[in-house]
Amino acid sequence: MIRIARTPLPVEVAGRLAALTERLSAVPRGTRSAHARRLWRTNPDRRTLRTTLAEMAPGRQHCMYCGDNQGTDIDHHEPLSRNPLRTFDWLNHLLACSTCNSHEKRDRFPVDSAGAPLLIDPTVEDPFEHLLLTLSLGAYHPLTAKGRATIEVCGLNRPLLTRGRVQAQRVVILCLREWSRARDAATRARAVLTVREQPFADVCQSMLRQAALPTAELVFSDSPGVVELLRTPELRSALLS
């Protein structure tokens, strides 16, 4: 999971979504969720929402939760069943794969004792403030209660993902070394594009962060020269842009 920059919607689309929220607010509370579902299913602006989310997503439209599968669903971060008035709230929409959306997260939305959300919204906060990726294992370690809840709700440490992150790190290292050997800009650009297009963007982002720490040599002890590459300003800028 990485930080995602949210793109504004076209003014006319945002206006229509706001009007739908107004309609829902006039519906009795007891029937509001069912009414919201009907309006959502028939909403013609869903295509625009999906397209905009895809443009925001990392790599080739990957899921904003697991970072592995292609994002196929518009997820309501705060579930429609919990707060139907956020059904058409653009700030409540994320791109998710069907596994994360329908099998892992579902309608779960944990909150703390004060009612504050415990599920990370990557368009609002930096996931790395709550999660530490152990690169050698491909597994997340929680740094906060919010990180712990997000790992559990989204299944971020399911075996398929941990294996995929380990493999993604191998690909990143191969591309870094190809970049360092390249004698022309085109080859370097292809190496960077390979990293940026592959699944698990969180792996490269975590590598870049951990390379800046005093413990970097220990973290990358099995990969000689990688720390120096990850600290190269030109390469860092290309991978972070």
UniProtKB/TrEMBL annotation:
Gene3D superfamilies (alphabetical): 1.10.30.50
Annotated GO CC locations: ribosome
HNH nuclease domain segment(s): 52-102
Descriptive protein name: HNH endonuclease
N-terminal signal peptide: none
Gene Ontology molecular functions: endonuclease activity
InterPro entries tied to this protein: HNH, HNH_nuc
Entry annotated with the keyword DNA damage: no
Pfam families to which the protein is assigned, alphabetical: HNH
The species this protein was found in: Allokutzneria oryzae
Repressor keyword on record: no
Keywords: Endonuclease, Hydrolase, Nuclease, Ribonucleoprotein, Ribosomal protein
Lineage top rank: taxon: Bacteria
